[in-house]
Amino acid sequence: MRRGVCLWQLGQSIIRSSLSQPNGKKAAAGAAATAARRGFASDAELKKTALYDFHVENGGKMVPFAGWSMPIQYKDSIMDSTLNCRANGSLFDVSHMCGLSLKGKDCVPFLETLVIADVAGLAPGTGSLTVFTNEKGGAIDDSVITKVKDDHIYLVVNAGCRDKDLAHIESHMKAFKAKGGDVNWHIHDERSLLALQGPLAASVLQLLTKHDLSKLYFGGFQMLDINGIHCFLTRTGYTGEDGFEISVPSERAVDLAKAIVEKSEGKVRLTGLGARDSLRLEAGLCLYGNDMEQHVTPVEAGLTWAIGKRRRAEGGFLGAQVILKQLEEGPPIRRVGFFSTGPPPRSHCEILDAGGKGLGEVTSGGFSPCLKKNIGMGYVKSGSHKNGTELKIVIRGKTYDGVITKMPFVPTKYYKPS
After folding, report:
1. Quick one: fold of 8-96+190-282?
2. What tens digit of pLDDT does each residue of 82-93 get?
3. pTM summary value
């Protein structure tokens, strides 16, 4: 699943002081090590979210990220932030991501030409992870989409993919409308996005709204008032924990962030992108630009479950011929998770079989603050992807032992009907 670009190189100069600290902080900071796909920008070129001053006031260490100035961590270490999210909760500013609405009586059939999900099959007020594909079946981006109503779809795309995603959607929308299709869009640049994650997320948020959140399950969506502010609320997230993404008018974003932290009595902490990356890796979730690329299909990425049953039968989305063939015959490569010894694995480290032959490469890796061991994801040749398969990971010219294991590494705690 979603979200963003490189953290490791971007954060090195900021967190170097914490790398030398004991108790695993060096390794925990390494969990943010995802390879940079975009260059550095000067401070003047960077965009700032509505919470920028709030981050700085609270000790946020700001780094360039997908064209934005974003906090990689606050006063606590990345390891401590990760553990606190699992034990209590975290509040992330994810306003750099792009929310948009598609409206019109044909918005569902239009979107289904671009994504693998069975959008028509979603009940109003529910959503799903999906993938935008290209003509070769590759992933343009992943996104969480929600059917608000039959004529209104709300979706969020990744910050680093915003320009190409919007250009892609717009070009296909023009062609669709030229044939008489009824669909329009609105890009929600007037809104900010907060992600509240962790076991205290629901109880804290419930203190700020009259709506019964116990009836809103994972993937559910509502428009409701939170702390007196009209918000879009989706029960989803990028940590493996229960939680919410809250779209709020930007002028009220700081007020809402303060209220959430205060209602939690400090147990829900402001958390940066470093811990966000270690949390999503522990949950076995894809990071676009690392674990998914335009040459990787959803089948290869292990997202077959996101292709609706009807879509498998009918196709109708870009690259369907390639993807449906892989469903039938199997893909040439597969995304796997693994444990490893030695230094934490990094993107582009070579993966070998037990005999030293090349199998593929690492796409994400680091030290798990929760498991206290190295974890990673990568792609290997089909046939060498079974759990328990022994590997060798090449790091700076030396090989270290690894073994393929099932994901998620840390059990997910999504809130679903019992």
Report:
1. Gyrase A; domain 2 (3.30.1360)
2. 999 999 999 999
3. 0.91
